[in-house]
Batch of 2 targets.
Target 1
Amino acid sequence: MEYIFIFLLGWVVLCLPALIYSAVIEGRRRRDVKQLDDQIRSLVNQIDLLERRTRTTQAPAHNEPATAPATSIPPRLRPTPQPVEVAGIPLIPPRPQPASPTPASPPIAAEARVQPPAPPALRSDTIPAAQPRSAKKSAALEETVGTNWLPKLGITILVVGVGLFVGSQWSSFTPWLRVLLLYAAAFAGLAGGIFLQRKDQFRVLGRALIGGGWAVLALVTYAIGNIPGVVVVQSATADLFLLLLAVGVMVWHTLRYESQLVTGAAFLLGFVAIGLNPEPPYNLIAGVIVVAGLTVIVLRRRWFELEVFGILAAYLNHSYWLYSIYERQGGWSPFPQLNSSLALVIAYWALFRISYLVRKIADERQESVSTISGLLNPVLFLAVMRYQAFHPELAFYALLIMGAVEFSLGQLGVSRQRKAPFYVLSSLGAALMAAALPFRFSGSALEVLWLAGAEAFLLAGVFTRERLFRGFGLIISLLVAGYALVVRVGPLAQQISEGRSHSDLQLSLLLAVIAIIVYANAHLTRHLWAEIFDHDEEHLAQSVLSYFGSILAAAAIFAAVPDKAAGIALALLGVLLNFAARKLAISEFNVQAHWISAVAFIQTAVAGSAADAGWHSVPQRVLMFVPAAALFYLGSHLVRTSRTWKPDISAAGYSWAATVLLGWLAWYQLPPLEVSLAWGVFGLALFEIGYAQKPEHLRIQGYAALVASFVHLFYSNFNTRAFGGWAKVLGTPAVVTVLPLNAIFYWVYARTVNRGQSGAIQAPAKTTVEFLLACLGTAAVASLVRFEVTPEIVVVGYALLTVALLATAWRTRQEIFLYQTLAMLAVTAFRISMHNFYYLHEQFTSSLTSAVWAIGILAAGVPLSFKLRGNEQERPSSTNWGKVLAHHLEQPMFFVPVVLMVVLLWLKLSGGMVTLAWGVEALVVFLFALWAKERSFRWAGLGLLVLCVGKLIFHDAWYFDDVRVRYLTWIGVGALLLLVSYLYGRNREALREYL
Amino acid sequence: MKRGIALLLLFSAAGLAFYYSSRHNAQSSVGPEAILNVVADTEREISRVPLRLTRLSDQGEIRIGDAMARAYLNRNPAGADEDALAHYIATVGATVAGRARRKLPYRFHYIADPSLVNAFALPGGHVFIGEGLLRLMDTEDELASVLGHELEHIDNYHCAERVQLQARLRHVPLSGLVQLPAEIFMAGYSKDQELEADRDGTAVAVMAGYSPSGALHLFEKLGKLHRAYVLKAGNPDQELSQVAIEGIIGYFRSHPLPEEREQQVREMILENHWPERKERALRFRPKPFESAR
């Protein structure tokens, strides 16, 4: 018994949308009628009022002598209400036209006046009596509940109770008695309902009783053949005929009430009856009969909403019958009545299609409803056919044929005459024929069929200018796209994340087709019919569709191509989207291109990390990274000139991705020793292109590549071994790879530096980048020296670098090199004193020789530093010691080697030889000071001499026991002092000039 | 035009460099050794003067070293059946130590631990050599070069300066330095110090009558071990992880590569015209490993 109720409940749920729609239409119709009725009454009342006023105005004139001409007031033209037809029912018959008024007509006698006719009586069974306007809302609600909802609810519960009663065990009643009693109850309900519904206040109650009576009648008729305890008819066929008879009578009866809802409910019971008795071939025949009958009624009464319900019920009923067959036979497989079933479904389609074509349409709303049924019919037809299709290879031909048939029907004269069928059937036919091919190659995916239906709705909405259909089309498209995302793309994504094989060409084709259609719905329609798609909701739906389309397109690529090529394909898609965005000015394409390109980058990077194999001796990684990078660069160019959000930032993102890929490729593919050089060359290329093309991000990438190349030197190039003399140094891998890199650093610096006109020393460039680049070059050379030569010889290299920087500063007039000279001078001095001097005692090192050479080279740079002095006006006046020293380089360049030599002599010599050596050094310093005309140098020389004298007096005289050393020292220092004095005297005039 | 020519020259120079590098199949190890060397050497150079000024006295150094050595030997007692080998090592060490500059009571200890492929020195004259390193040797000259290397760490005040540095870093008075673990002396010294110890150690071994080839052969063996067991990065991901790991743990491990040490010794042989001497085989060796029953 529960089975029956579940079945009934299922039917109600399935048919509920149609029923609700019918009820809504019905309600709207009644509301419209009510409003019209009220308007008419209001107008009539106004006319009455005016006529009374007119009569009142004319009455005094009627008693006066007829000297004054009566002011004749022509009778007003009475409004002639046009006949209003709702659902084919004429509500107000046309009223007779009043006589034309004549000017200066004599006063009309009151009795000759045409009395305003009473408002026509409205059909009481369709239009409820107009409620007084003064009825309070609460009273109206209470009345609605009591007279409308309660009867319906009550009869429903009653019928359910009767149903339960039917299925229960009646121990003391024979089946025939039970049947009689039940039939009596049914007829009693019917009779009572028919009687009560005649009265206005019991109309709803009466109809509820009628409906309940028929429901009980139908239930009992079914029960007499199927329910244990009340079975009196043994033959299912006979029971079916009885049921159909009962339904037929019921339909005939309900027609009297001119209500689609009621008649629809009757038909519902008919379909239920067929569904409950799925015994072929009778149920099939009965189905055709019921559908044919419904179609006739629809055409005659123009109850097009009822047809929508009928289409749903017919196909769903048939689907249920198929389901029960498959359940019985234990699986989805061919069954004996397959051909009959196919014929039946085709008959359904044909009947409804004929109904669609031959009907007479009165207004736009009827046409809209007809379009719904016109589209619902083929959609459900295809769905049911799919459910019973066991030869998928024929689906392609079936779609083609059906598409051709629909298209051909659209070209008929009767279609063209009404226009809407022409548009709808032509669009439908075209959509079906277009869907045939992808349906075939996508493994008969249902999404294709749904999309064909969506396209039909959408195009129907475009051509008939009906927003509802366009909405259906967009909603179905969204649903299909969402379904595909969940059911198709979700598992695909899981396979990808788990690293399983996910190549599926059928799936790829399906997703691609859906994506293309979705994109077309989102953008092509808006482009072609912009004036139609002008609602915000439609724009929103199309925007969402567009993004769905991008996800589906990306998923199609993942399903179609191997992982190693997916990145390139996605990057290509990104480029196409960017191109389309720029060409069509669609900003959504830019956003989609951005996220797809991001996925492409990640895919390329991840897949490329593990791609160690080669393809025809070309590394796979190269084949992956290079095309992807090229596409990203192209995308950057396209984005830069498009109307996306922050185009410069977006373009920078693309180019950074490409640059990172290429840098990464070099890191993977090249030996560690060559990576830095490759990055340096790459950085140079980026810089030059950025310099020429003006996009700043390319230059910044170039700088980044150069910095990275410098850092990488310390992790690879400087780890090579070149422990030996100069001949070996020049040919070591580090030298060979670092020197060109160095040249690149300085070249890029030179290109960015700001050159002055006068040739004076320029202040360091404000930008950190230029400063960094200049330091990178020098740091690279210094590092090369540090790592590639013997530790003791490092100072010689440092000293040479110091002088070279000095020469560069002199040549280029760039202040940065002055600072670098100063820094290298400090480093050299530190290295000499903390390293070479420490190992002076080592007999197996060249610390002493190297120290001497280094000091000599530094000293040789002093004359050059004088060239940088310039004149006093050019020197900056500043208290910054670093700046002062940098602009007076001759001072540190002189004093550092002098002091170092003093220390070296002290460490290496001993006894009086130190004093003598210092004295000689002082003489050399003094001579140099005279040549340089530098006072501080002269003072340095004098200072050294004083130091010699001091050491002689306070140390040598007391600690040296060797007499020879003592007197030699004293003689030597004395001679030096005399010589210096001579020099002072000889150059006195010059000294006075400089003092 | 000029710019174009200059660019062309730059690219050509780079291309030639690529060609040269590929043709010579130059190899390089990827790691932070270069940076670590620079940092360690710079630290040593900066601290050289202060360390010299605050240098421990010989007596102080001996006292601290004796305490450390006692503590270490308590934890790692020598095997009772290796007396002959220990005595042999001490004899060779004493021969070499006779040429050292500083006259300290040098003592040489044998650690019977096959996993200790290392030798280290403690302040005051204690030199330890592990069984693992001894098993690599075939000649007495190799042993002499190792012992000479370690005692030169003492002779050149490397150990003493390490003690002074640790005292400053741990804020521990000198009297508390006896608690320092011996392991801090196992990690090695800066590249300069190692090369210095190589130079002086080889020199004292040669002056003691051993062949400089002993050092060469030992460096060759160490080089093979280094190439065999030190993980070489095969791709950028491994390079990054190797740099990170070695950067963390390798701060004091600034050993020069065996090839570099070998090169230095070869140059010393050439410059000083050291005669080619026949190497002597080891008279005592560690006992073979017991076979599984």
Target 2
Amino acid sequence: MLEVRNLTKIYEGGVLALNQVSFQVPKGQFLAVIGLSGSGKSTLLRCINRLIEPTAGQVIWNGKDITAASPQELRLIRRKIGMVFQNFNLVYRSKVITNVLAGRLGYINPAWSLVGRFPREDIQKAIKQLERVGIADKAYQRADELSGGQQQRVGIARALMQDPEMILADEPVASLDPVLAHSIMRYLEQINKEDGVTVLCSLHFLDLVHRYADRVIALNNGNLVFEGLPQEIDDQKFKEIYGREAERIG
Amino acid sequence: MEEKPKASLWKSLRLGLGIIAILLIYAYGFQVTKVDLAEFRKESRQDSRIRVLRALARPDIFEYDQEEFTVYAPIYVPCPEQPPDFPPPDTSQPHLALSASCGKPNESIQVEGFNFQPNIKGPIFFVPSSDPHDTLALQRGNIETDSQGHFVTVIRLPNRPSTEVQYIKTITRRNVGLPRFSQTAIDTWDKIIETIFLALLATTIGTIFSIPISFFAARNLMKDIKSSLTSIALAALGWPLGIAIGLAAARWLQSLLAKWSDQIAVSLLIVLGAALIGYLLLRWAVFGVSREEEGLSMKLLRSLAQSVSILAWIIACFALSQAGVKGGFSLASRLGSFAFLGNFIGQVSDVITVLLPTAVALGGGAWLGNLGGQIGTKWNDSLPSRAVKALNSLLSALAGATLFALCGWGIGWLYETKDIRLFLYSPAVIGATLGILLALFIPSKQPLPIGLVIYTITRTILNAVRSIEALIMAIVAVIWVGIGPFAGVLALGLHTIASLAKLYSEQVESILPGPIEAITATGATRLQMIVYAVLPQIIPPYISFTMYRWDINVRMSTIIGFAGGGGIGFLLIQNINLLNYRAASTQMIAIAIVVSAMDYLSSAMRERFV
């Protein structure tokens, strides 16, 4: 259970990115976050694991207040929250397997990790996760030799290495073509349905929202303007979320 | 069609004034740089130009063994009663034929030579003695043989009348065997090797120090580091205290171990023992830690073990360096032509001996500073706002007083002041006041951007050091360690630290932020983030910049000798000052070859990495 209470973020320079946003996500739900570019979707997701420090408000997850956690506690919380990014955020000069193993950094002995040693079972686990996303044969290639869709699968495998209870996906398919988008979304769906992992996923396209999400929240200029089921977004609601001039596509 | 803008009076006036200003600037430039073509055209300059140019065109690289041929022909001066009758010379050997076997003083006679080496030159002498090997010989001219080894010349007989037979003598030299390198070439080779290694050492030193510095000078890594005033003040107090403790501990350890400085075996035994203890404790307390929560007593035990392990390692390092100094130099005297290896061990150990106390002191400072910072953070988080404010006032006053007093003490030492109040107490008072003001004016729990402060200080120091030319640093280094390549290493090393740290930090600033974000999101520590997200991105450009810098350092080290910094420049400036342009030419060619080779090598290697 994730509970976000009155979350507010004001960037240096006074830009109000999130304004008193509150919502709840039950365990195991697939929540889509929609809104225009710059509406605060990325900020919201990053405030949840404090990659961006919120200005005010609380994020409570499984009874723990993430916003009040000490650096040490925060690291222990973060390792249970996987994250998938629009630009994949792989370390391109490293091997695929190293990128995946990086997901274990929160678990393994820090001293060994600094010299690049991972436990044998973690390496096997990494291969298994790569098999799950169908690119086990690429394990020892450099990450920048992979195509976009493959890179995002590496990103998902890295998140899976964390044994996550929740995945924050920040526009995971915005840099991919529609066919690849569905294959990536299906992996997220599978993780959500089979492993019971809570997924918060920001998305651009409404058809993806209809297809994959259990529930939707919508942001506009940092305000929560909609919360409900995907089917509830009619033309009226659509214009409220995306503005008067918006046209529905897809 | 666009209409042509109308020429306004103001515009033309401005253009005219601009042209006049530029002319004035160049006129003054000619004046101050003393442009003078009359000097250029002078006859004497012309001659020296040609002389130097010709010398430069004939670099002193090869020389030959030479063979000397001396050929005699007897002659009477003046003619005796009976015309002399000499036996005919051996015509299979080089021989001389005179137009007359005797002559009056000051008479000219023709000398013809046969069977000489073709195309050689040499002097021709008159030997005024009946012994043809007499060292006294009067040079009467020079001969030059044709392609058949034949020459004809006319010489004037000297006014040396004698009743006895005298001789005409020619001396010719020819090169025999293969050419071999001249002494200049050998010296140049020695020095060019010295130059390359000078550059290598300077680059190595520079790289080692500039890598950690570059992280402090990278804005993207530093800007997020914020800390409360409590923890900053405690860290600021912890650092000098830790440095003092570390220094004292290091000195004590060194003096303790010095007892066994003569017995290498004992020193080595201490190294082994301490390293073993250190290794075992390290395995348990550092590499055995799991990230799961542990009890407080276990944590304490582990940190105790960590401290003992570090102590053991320090002792091992001290003992090792001590054994290395002793053993290395004694090896050097026994190894013969491999003495340089023993010398290397000895010198490196000596360097470690010198650097180790500093490292231990810095480590102590970092440890206590870090501890202070952590305690500060804890207090800051747990205490109420007012208490924090009161605590802050006290601590930052103390910290300010300490830092300012230390600076004041340094200045006082530099100027040999007697008045301790002025340089110790008054800065302390100023520092304390500033500290209290800071604590009062800043909201008590607000985190301060200490990272940016460190960044700015690092950048400022780097810029200041970089603006000093390596040549000038060499002058300082020569005062420090004496004339020689070591001074050059220090000067170039220091300059390399500053410029590489700048280049490196710019690389760090230009890395992709995405991987940092992703690795942080996995729950990695800051150090893990640097190893997994930052290092893979910066290692290739770091290697490339290091190569590039080595290339620059080779170029710089060729002239660092001008200021006494060793290397080939030392030889070059000497030869130029001695007007020995042929040798200077050899050295210039060597520099050109090495620099262009380095240039090619470094660009070829850089291409592979970037």
